[in-house]
Amino acid sequence: MNKFYELYGSISSCDETFPARSAVLQSFAQACKDLRVSASGQDESATPVEDCLRAIANQPNLLAIAIAEWLTDREHLPTAKELVHVASIQYLREDVALKFDMGALDKSRVALAGCRLCTLGACPAISLGWALSLAEGGNIGESPFDSAIKLIKYHIEEFPGTTLRMLGADSSPFKTMLIAQEALSVLAADSATMEAMPPLRELSMTPEMRLLLAGLKRAENREINERADDNSILAKLFTSHHFKYANKTSIEIMVGDQPKETTLAMQPYGFSIELPLSEGTDPFAGMMRRNAMWKGVLE
Amino acid sequence: MEGGLGMSIALVLSHYLEGLKERDELDALLPELLRAMGHSVQSRPQTGVAQAGVDVVSTAINESGETEVFLFVIKFGDVGREDFYGGKQAIDPSIREAANEFIRNRLPAKLQAFNKKIVLLTNGVLKQEAQAGYAALSHDIASRPLCSLEFWGMYQLTPLIEAHLFDEGLLLGLGKSDLRAALAGIEDTHSAFRRFIRFVDHCFEVPPEEVSLGVKARKKKFYRRVAAAAMGWAVMLVWGRTENNLKPGVLAGEYLLLRLWSEGVKQGHSKDKLFHERMTASMLLYVDALQAYLARIVPQLMHRRVILGYRPERVLYADLIFEELGRCAQFLLLLQGVGNQDALRLQVHELIVRLVNEHTGCLLPVLDGQSIDLTLVLLALMGEGDVSSAKNLVRSVTNRLIHALKSNQYLPVDTDLIEDAVVASRDENLAPRTFFKTTTLVPALASVAAILEDEEALAELREIALPLLEGVTLERWFPTVELETLTGERKSIASVGVSRALSGIRPTASEEAAASLKGFEGAAAREDFAWHGTPWSVMPVLSARMHRHPLPTWFLAEYAPGGAGDGADTGAPAESE
Rounded to the nearest 10 degrees, how much is the dihedral formed by the CA atoms of B377, B381, B382, B383? Predict the structure, then answer.
């Protein structure tokens, strides 16, 4: 049997101790490394590997160990990147920042991993949660603490909307944390200042720009939906209907010789994510900043 | 209206009123003004009909609720001693006729019982020499029951017009409906601006019969047109304030200054003292208008997050930033030529530095044409003697350009079209340099680096950037003299200049500077332009922003550190951050 199935079992049921977790992750990482260098077996192992990664991502404290150890180790970087990707998809819609137990982890590696999470564009629930978790642990040393503060500052600057929402949520695990409260008050003050500003016609878009922007958004939406449909198993199994004029619909289906009607009321559904601010203002600087962060260099 | 803007507008208004003809215009304006003031106009001027001295009669209810009758005796221009007793104006006889003949015999009976104010109205002033005569006349009139004499000259009319008639009703000619349309749609900046241009086109239409007039008469008509166009702009500025959109007024001012210059050169008046005065009045009004505009937008312009809220896409955000940075730089360059503006210059200089530091996306143009705005920023800094900031900016831009060339990402789009820039940034299947066949940025950077004598920056351009620019045309543009009269013509920028494709960048700054300046066949020299050697030699700045053409190298050279060019005040030589 593919060894990744066994590893999946181990990962899902491993003891909640640092040594046990570390051992399981070590085995998995080694198996991934062996797979990369071997000439065959990559195709059939793709799905079980992904399942294992999802199982790791499902457990924040296991995820923390995996990220801290693999993302700062050249040998396991490819696995780390895949894990970050899978975990980011998993936690993309989180309303709060994730809390990680970093007690037993090497703090300088954790700090570097925090920087690299930002370079990889991990979802803010993970990257912000990582920075806050690092800052929360006492006695972590001046340099890791400084990095944690700078990482939080990075999120305030690049993801102000998401950071404000996550820190201000009632269920935020960092609600009582002083640094989080300070960050929240800075963001709330900025937000209040912006809202108090009167809208200026002088700065608004021309009608042509509005049309262009609307067209771009529609194209983007179409692309997302098409790719989602292409990757969807359900879409392959079921017939889909698209309605223009109504939200309450009825679909005719033949059951034997008899047509039957099934009524369905559709609801609007949408989800948006905040891109880094620099994507709109200065993507070049954003890219340079994140590249520097990969080396652990923070502004 | 606040001090500065109000005074500038009053000056423009006074020029306009001076230029009105006695018959048809001043007479036509008065009833409009009276109605706007809430008067009821009882009779209008009729040419050729004896009116016993009185041109317009109106009634109005005063603050105490009483009806007053106004009898207007319209005269023309400044009132001197000779106008009082005889001559064409014959003011004393006219007023006495109004007081005697008109009130007794021609005023409707129902109005007889009210207070009657005889108003001597003119679009000039009451000269000192006529004061005594006026005082005597006034005393005489006041001795009659319910009668008094008032004087409404330039200084009385101006505030009344400002208060009551600041709309298209003030403009009496063909362009009125265009101005009305511009004012009505003032919340849509670009549409209002286009309509203003049509208004100005109408202002400057020369009727065929004018060709047969003498030189002096044609000149007078020219100045009337100038005054009317400036008046329409002043009205637009005031409306912009009421309707909370100052941008159309600012754009209109930028266009008008160029158009006035263009018309002045075409008609041969650009060296006249009066033309210089009118241009100066418009320039001062523009400075005041721009100050008001910046005061309004800068609190929000200083925050990149706020601006991204207005323009939630990179290309659109950059469009706004470069436009406003270019405008600030233009402002500073104009102030450098105006004189006595040290405090304001310091403010604008600081503003530019803060804007560049906040909106770091301006360190590489998204559209190649935005190199124009970047060059203006460099010149403005150099004009303030801030050589170190200018050098830092050149190096930052060069650095980013090199990264862009190496990665084939974020290259300035040569078509200058926002749509193409959007495609270039989003379409992964597009060949890397589809929109990078031409660059004016590199030649501009090379010229400025050479002028700043920055050998290091020039070496980076030459040795690192240049090898990555194979197949790309390095375009340096040189205008012909027709650039001066382009505004108002149905011509494109391509017909008023010639371009050189650079073969490379010279080995030293001085050689590159010399090569930048070297003209060639078809290109005009600096001295060929009418603005050369005048305070208006700064016009290329306005022209570059409005018509979207690069700054000519002979213009850049005027900002060389330590050297003072004609009409360009390069400011203090000390460097400042």
Answer: 100
Nearest 5°: CA angle at B483, between B480 and B485?
130
Query: Which residues in chain A come in under a pLDDT of 50?
Result: none
Nearest to B245 by CA among B304, B289, B207: B289
Which pTM does this prediction carry? 0.89
The answer to whether the Cβ–Cβ distance between A281 and B309 falls below 8 Å is: no
Contacting residues of A for B298, CB less than 8 Å apart: none
Q: Which residues pair with B474 in a beta bridge?
A: B439
Residues of chain B positioned with their CB less than 8 A from the CB of A285: 360-361
Cβ–Cβ contacts within 10 Å for residue A231, how many? 9
Contacts with B319 from chain A: Cβ below 8 Å: 209
Structure tokens at A124: 């803010």
Chain B nearest C-alpha distance from A197 (Å): 8
Name the phi and psi angles at B480, rounded to 5. Answer: -95, 175
**What residues pair up with B152 in beta bridges, in sequence order?**
B121
Alpha-carbon distance of B286 to B5, in angstroms, equals 9
CB A61 within 8 A of CB A16: yes
Q: Do B304 and A203 touch (CB under 8 A)?
A: no
**Residues on chain B touching A216 (C-beta within 8 angstroms):** 313, 422, 426
Q: What is the pLDDT of residues A56-73, one digit of tens each?
A: 999 999 999 999 999 999
Task: Express each pLDDT in B172-210 by its tens digit.
Answer: 676 888 898 999 999 999 999 999 999 999 999 888 888
Compare all CA atoms of chain B with the CA of A194 and give the residue at the minimum distance. B306
What is the tens place of the pLDDT at every residue in A252-295? 888 999 999 989 888 888 888 999 999 999 999 999 999 999 99
The pLDDT confidence band at residue B577, using thresholds 50, 70 and 90, is very low
Q: What is the pLDDT of residue B484?
A: 96
Q: Could you give the CA distance from residue B230 to residue A273 in angstroms, rounded to a whole number? A: 50
Contacts of B246 (CB under 8 A, 6+ apart): A202, B237, B240, B289, B292, B293, B296
C-alpha distance from A38 to closest chain B C-alpha (Å): 32
CA distances from A129 to A77, A118, B130 (A): 21, 12, 86
Q: Quick one: residue B471, left, alpha or beta (phi over 0 = left, psi -120 to 50 = alpha)?
A: left
Q: How far does A146 lie from chain B, in Å, by closest CA?
A: 24
Q: How far is B318 from chain A (nearest CA, A)?
A: 7
Q: What is the ipTM of this complex?
A: 0.91
* Long-range CB contacts for residues A36-45, cutoff 8 Å, separation at least 24: A36/A78, A44/A2, A45/A2, A45/A4
Which pLDDT value is given to residue B10?
Answer: 81
